[in-house]
């Protein structure tokens, strides 16, 4: 019996190691590539032992125009991602609340329609968006990216948040309304703070969409509004792919994502652990 | 403090009417309990007074002013919910102070009144905790604190004790009654537990299927239930009810097995087919006369003993203050005190009284 339990533990440990390895290997490979000298970057079989070098990072940052573009792209990515997240939450929260609580006529078909928007392949929007933004002089601006990012994120955000709002006991807002709030006050003072874990989870999806997107940022930006994925794409040059620099750009890109995940994850976990929705 | 008037109030959800014209007048400072089986409309009625449900027809007035169209926040009422509805992200202090803060009360005044409410309810050591770190009874007190802190015109309670275990419920029942006696605030209290209704209320409103069956003091309901429903619903154990045929000439009532029970009321009862009822404590055990029954279950409770008898397929419950010497399976004769018995029309279930019909009660 004890042997069986031990075996179970070992098996579990093996499974965990495999899962972690699958998740971590590509990241590790990418980071290692960014530190490998160019000559052995894509050597086959891959060289495990090598003298690490920062040449790709130096090349990225010191490459005159390219260097300043990288800094700009990093800031752009941060701004576009943050604003997308905020706008999405700001729009999706009231919408989801209204759909979950007030249930206006046509709620059912409206929610299906909302998720239908999500099913649209993003690439379908690129050309019309380009043609639409060009006469307005909005190509290569933040707005050019915010429109599709927020537009595509809202459906999923609304859907996720509806679930969160429905899980909050109705009595909480009823109590708030009796305690002197209007419906908006109850939403603001009671429902929003309790939906924070839901908003955090929803934000991750929006954030990742905006941070990783290339479909919109490649055609819709050129210089001023370029984002990190565009810079990464530019590592494919006429002479081939600058694997080392691509690895470096990707490594820089991954850092904020890891930070965001840690930050938001804490909120999600604390929200669930606190039993916020238990009566 | 204020009087609350509920006048011919109706409620429909879509095409289905769940409250069919209900009227209750609650005097200033009175503690009225709405009681009835689930689905009788008592909670809906309370929520309409609170402003959480729209009033389909009729009128609710507080202090003489109709409040049908006022939002809950402008009705000057406080409500305690079954699941307490404490705000999970706020401490006890913030929870209790919330209504005051929403009313724009000055922070020092909020602090002072929260302290006072916490003092009254013994919550002082818990003020900085979050609801998730409180026991059920403590949460219940916080919910009370949030209600009393604003000194509302009336309290509304929606089954506030039903989430507590039996012992705590009994304790909180007493505490709550004491608190309300001290405050003297008008209160409307919903419960499905007739013991709560009996023990706490100044007056009880018994509801069934969206209508009021009877309004009265707890002892009114116990002593003079207007129909078999109220007779069965009020009192623990329930009133024993048996069908019988009135034999006016012999002054007896004939029951199922042909036994004739002597009954003074047989002379004035206006019909043959009746249901008569007797409380468990009016039952005596006899050797020779009365209803033949078998002892089925004996439940000693120390101070008194409750015994379930089987009369054919019918149950009869007796409570005896002395420790009685009967055994399970034993055949006995039961003699209810027929001078204290209640009589009901077998067809309609309505109470039958000597003298003029008491239509006002129906």
Automatic annotation (TrEMBL), chain A:
Spell out the GO cellular component terms annotated for this protein, sorted alphabetically and separated by semicolons.
plasma membrane
What biological process terms from GO does the record include?
Answer: transmembrane transport
Query: Any idea where this protein resides?
Result: Cell membrane
Q: Does the keyword Transmembrane apply?
A: yes
What kind of membrane protein is this, topologically? Multi-pass membrane protein
Keywords assigned by UniProt, alphabetized: Cell membrane, Membrane, Transmembrane, Transmembrane helix, Transport
Which PROSITE patterns does its entry note? ABC_TM1
Pfam families per UniProt: BPD_transp_1
Q: Give the transmembrane ranges.
A: 12-32, 70-98, 110-130, 142-165, 186-211, 242-264
Q: Which residues form the ABC transmembrane type-1 domain?
A: 74-264
> Which family does the similarity line name?
Belongs to the binding-protein-dependent transport system permease family.
Q: What is this protein called?
A: ABC transmembrane type-1 domain-containing protein
Automatic annotation (TrEMBL), chain B:
User: What is any one of the record's Gene Ontology cellular component terms?
Assistant: ATP-binding cassette (ABC) transporter complex, substrate-binding subunit-containing
Q: Which family does it belong to?
A: Belongs to the ABC transporter superfamily.
Kindly state a single biological-process term from the GO annotations of this entry: carbohydrate transport
The subcellular localization recorded is: Cell inner membrane
Where does the ABC transporter domain start and stop, copy by copy?
A: 4-234
Does the record carry Glycoprotein as a key word?
Answer: no
Q: What is the protein name stated in its UniProt record?
A: Sugar ABC transporter ATP-binding protein
Keywords of the record, alphabetical order, are:
ATP-binding, Nucleotide-binding, Transport
Lyase recorded as keyword: no
How does it sit in the bilayer? Peripheral membrane protein
List the InterPro entries hit by this protein, alphabetically. AAA+_ATPase (IPR003593), ABC_transporter-like_ATP-bd (IPR003439), ABC_transporter-like_CS (IPR017871), ABC_transpr_MalK-like (IPR015855), ABC_transpr_MalK/UgpC-like (IPR047641), Mo/tungstate-bd_C_term_dom (IPR008995), NA-bd_OB-fold (IPR012340), P-loop_NTPase (IPR027417)
Question: Its Gene Ontology molecular function terms?
Answer: ABC-type transporter activity; ATP binding; ATP hydrolysis activity
């Amino acid at each position: 019996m004890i042997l069986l339990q031990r075996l179970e533990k070992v098996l579990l440990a093996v499974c965990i190691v495999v899962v972690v390895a699958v998740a971590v290997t590509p990241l590790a490979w990418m980071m290692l590539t960014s530190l490998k000298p160019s000559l052995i970057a894509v050597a086959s079989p891959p060289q495990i032992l090598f003298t690490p070098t920062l040449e790709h990072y130096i090349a990225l940052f010191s490459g005159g125009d390219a260097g300043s573009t990288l800094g700009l792209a990093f800031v752009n990515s941060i701004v576009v991602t943050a604003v997308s997240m905020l706008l999405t939450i700001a729009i999706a929260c009231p919408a989801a609340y209204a759909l979950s609580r007030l249930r206006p006529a046509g709620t059912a078909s409206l929610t299906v329609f909302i998720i239908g928007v999500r099913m649209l392949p993003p690439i379908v929007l690129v050309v019309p968006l380009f043609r639409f933004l060009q006469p307005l002089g909005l190509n290569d601006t933040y707005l050019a990216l915010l429109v599709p990012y927020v537009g595509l994120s809202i459906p999923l955000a609304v859907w996720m948040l509806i679930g969160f709002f429905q899980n909050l006991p109705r009595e909480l807002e009823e109590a708030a309304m009796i305690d002197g709030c209007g419906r908006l006050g109850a939403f603001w003072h009671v429902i929003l703070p309790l939906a924070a874990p839901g908003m955090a989870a929803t934000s991750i999806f929006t954030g990742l969409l905006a941070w990783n997107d290339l479909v919109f940022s490649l055609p819709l930006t050129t210089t001023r509004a370029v984002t990190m994925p565009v810079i990464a794409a530019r590592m494919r040059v006429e002479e081939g792919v600058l694997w080392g620099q691509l690895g470096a750009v990707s490594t820089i890109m991954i850092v904020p994502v890891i930070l965001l995940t840690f930050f938001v994850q804490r909120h999600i976990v604390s929200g669930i652990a606190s039993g916020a929705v238990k009566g | 403090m204020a009087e609350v008037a509920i006048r011919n109030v109706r409620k429909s959800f879509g095409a289905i009417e769940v409250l069919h014209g209900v009227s209750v007048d609650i005097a200033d400072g009175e503690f009225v309990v709405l009681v009835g089986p689930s689905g009788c409309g008592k909670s809906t009625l309370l929520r309409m007074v609170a402003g959480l449900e729209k009033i389909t027809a009729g009128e609710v007035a507080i202090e003489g002013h109709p409040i049908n169209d006022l939002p809950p926040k402008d009705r000057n009422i406080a409500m305690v919910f079954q699941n307490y509805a404490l705000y999970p992200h706020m401490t006890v202090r913030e929870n209790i102070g919330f209504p005051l803060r929403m009313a724009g009360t000055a922070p020092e005044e909020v602090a002072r009144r929260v302290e006072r409410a916490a003092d009254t309810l013994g919550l002082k050591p818990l003020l900085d905790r979050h609801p998730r770190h409180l026991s059920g009874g403590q949460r219940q007190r916080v919910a009370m604190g949030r209600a009393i802190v604003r000194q509302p015109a009336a309290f509304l309670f929606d089954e506030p004790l039903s989430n507590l275990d039996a012992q705590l419920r009994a304790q909180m029942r007493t505490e709550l009654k004491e608190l309300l006696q001290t405050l003297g605030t008008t209160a409307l209290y919903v419960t499905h537990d007739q013991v709560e209704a009996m023990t706490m209320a100044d007056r009880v409103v018994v509801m069934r299927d969206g209508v009021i069956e009877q309004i009265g003091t707890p002892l009114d309901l116990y002593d003079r239930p207007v129909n078999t429903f109220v007779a069965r619903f009020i009192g623990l154990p329930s009133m024993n009810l048996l069908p019988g045929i009135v034999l006016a000439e012999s002054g007896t009532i004939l029951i199922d097995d042909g036994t004739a029970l002597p009954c003074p009321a047989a002379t004035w009862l206006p019909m043959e087919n009746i249901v008569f009822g007797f409380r468990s404590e009016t039952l005596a055990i006899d050797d020779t006369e009365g209803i033949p029954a078998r002892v089925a279950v004996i439940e000693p409770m120390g101070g008194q003993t409750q015994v379930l008898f089987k009369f054919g397929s019918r149950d009869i419950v007796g409570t005896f203050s002395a420790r009685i010497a009967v055994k399970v399976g034993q055949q006995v004769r039961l003699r209810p005190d027929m001078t204290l018995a209640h009589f009901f029309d077998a067809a309609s279930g309505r109470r039958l009284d000597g003298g003029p019909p008491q239509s006002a009660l129906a």
